[in-house]
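Re-running the complex after MR caught last week's input typo. The corrected sequence lines follow. Everything else is unchanged.
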Amino acid sequence: MSPLPAAVCPPVRVLMGPGPSDIHPRVLRAMSANTVGHLDPYYLRVMDEMQAMLRTLFRTENRMTMAISATGSAGMEATVVNLIEPGDSMIVCKNGVFGMRMADVAERAGAQVTCVERPWGEVFTPGDLKDALAKAKPKVVGIVMAETSTGAWQPLEEIATLVHDAGALLLVDAVTSLGGVPVEVDAWGIDAIYSGTQKCLSCPPGLAPVSFNDRALDVVMNRKTKVQSWYLDVTMLANYWGSDRVYHHTAPINMTYGLHEALRVILEEGLEACFARHALNHQALKAGLSAMGIGFAAQEGHQLPMLNAVTVPEGIDDAAVRGGLLNNFGIEIGAGLGAFKGKVWRIGLMGHASRANNVLLLLGALDELLAEQGHKFDSGAGVAAASQAYRAAT
Amino acid sequence: MSPLPAAVCPPVRVLMGPGPSDIHPRVLRAMSANTVGHLDPYYLRVMDEMQAMLRTLFRTENRMTMAISATGSAGMEATVVNLIEPGDSMIVCKNGVFGMRMADVAERAGAQVTCVERPWGEVFTPGDLKDALAKAKPKVVGIVMAETSTGAWQPLEEIATLVHDAGALLLVDAVTSLGGVPVEVDAWGIDAIYSGTQKCLSCPPGLAPVSFNDRALDVVMNRKTKVQSWYLDVTMLANYWGSDRVYHHTAPINMTYGLHEALRVILEEGLEACFARHALNHQALKAGLSAMGIGFAAQEGHQLPMLNAVTVPEGIDDAAVRGGLLNNFGIEIGAGLGAFKGKVWRIGLMGHASRANNVLLLLGALDELLAEQGHKFDSGAGVAAASQAYRAAT
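Corrected-run output:
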């Protein structure tokens, strides 16, 4: 073909959407390290180290903790198709896009799906699940810990107990939560969990960290039918990620380098410090937006620090503001999805993107764009309130 | 956790195994470019350009030409699960590991699989398929163009005609062939095809280029059942890769940068020149190995230029030679798989790894290691024969 396209030379963005988030520069450098083979002794060591760091992040001792060679949504599919056999009963908790997606994935795996629903932006209480558990007698209950479409932060501890009392396995979507808020796989008794690299891990999309505890693994290893996906079949992946190192597929070597470095960055900071940073920047953003008359879409007391779904003020053109942010300031924020389309902005403060610089920059940029559109607010009040929140914290 | 693992710092390897192959330095640099969002106007342009370049490589006008967000094996799964519905009849041609894998993938998708078999290292003639086509009346016939486990190069043109005459779709595995030998999707009438990035494209593993023609797409779009994999569902992927750009999953942005640059490197050289280079380096390697008493595992006349499966000489310790190559010279070659375990070495001359430097280096290193093991041959004859082959070509 002629002429050839120019070499990739991307514009510089501030990634404050629902992911990918700002990538840590060390991660990008690691990704360009020279490639070795997927069975090279050096690569096997990198895999071991990555597994150990993922266990620390998931707060688990689970042997079967690894990264699926695809993006976060494939992590969802991997956990579902390994646990579910055709005809199995599964409950899916639906209060946003990713619960809907999980129900779809489960149905495609042949599950008899019972959906328990809450309005978008709200979370589930154990009471919401009781009847369905008694009626559906599920093998698996799937729930989203951080609903990226609504910014709702789902508590899991009590629900885990209830699910286990009903004899079911708890499957958790931690795509957006991992690395930003505590995810206690062992302490809460989460049986299977998946995440993605492009949210609070500050790594480009391309891998899906997953973990199965022995109870879940036992279910997988004793299936009557083969897992419907060859690529995601944990009974085979276990032989590559385990001590046998049997070839399954060719792992995405350089993505693994990136995730390895991303995990090192997080663990250098320390998990508690990292969670505190996410919480503080969220509080500052919230104070700033509140001073500008912008409220949150998710239920008070259950708002995620890394995914701020906020309501587009009355009379303001959603797309014009997002376009202004992107074109005038290089800032990406997310549009609303599904029920929230046109009504909500999704502001990510994830991983390396969760810093005061980004909060102040966004508030300043929004100040200008909202004033242009005639929004009634006290110009400058947003940055002042955020600044006050930061000062109060030190 | 403490202490943290050290930062990734891989040993320098010469990747002459079955893939990943040597990565072009420009590709590694492209992969570390700053990340943008998966719906960023700039990224959408990169996707468009990548699709156009993939069409040139596949020699097709197929609209539905794109990259699956996972490695080559997921490309196999993507094409199979989109075309097959439970109960559909499918013929799989099996003469190595990847035909076996395709049969497994197809069974998991619910296909009634008929396997047509040839001994490892041999290829199929149209005659091998006639009876099975009449009997199985398949919806899809799957065949591997470049069997990475045996080095056999499968001709496709006549088989394509036969398959179409029988009213079936032809599905082709081009993981190892794409970019190294002609792959004529439109001229041969291939209905669906998949490849990987880590072979002749000189890009790290992580994406699977695929292409469906309108006949295949029509079958996918008119399915009675949902595609069993949500992640690989072309009916949804079409809305992201098509003009609508509807969010499906978060694409692996930086892998796309890498593939974009890898395709630019190939098209700058030109496809014909690239194929000629692969052919010449194969001939030189073959001449050299022959002079050292090492023969090929695949049928004469059907040996792949980029994947040289050669027989381990009598009395030589397979693992010791591969270990010596890796530890003394940093050279990775592949072991035999399945029926060829311990009997065959797989020497890749793929993409950027297909160059005289690698051929001469490998022959020199093998000379030393085989002499150490008491192999009877004329030391130096291998390099001399290869050098002669290069001189003859200029």
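None of the earlier attempt is carried over here. The mean pLDDT of chain B is 97. Chain B is about 45% helix and 15% strand.
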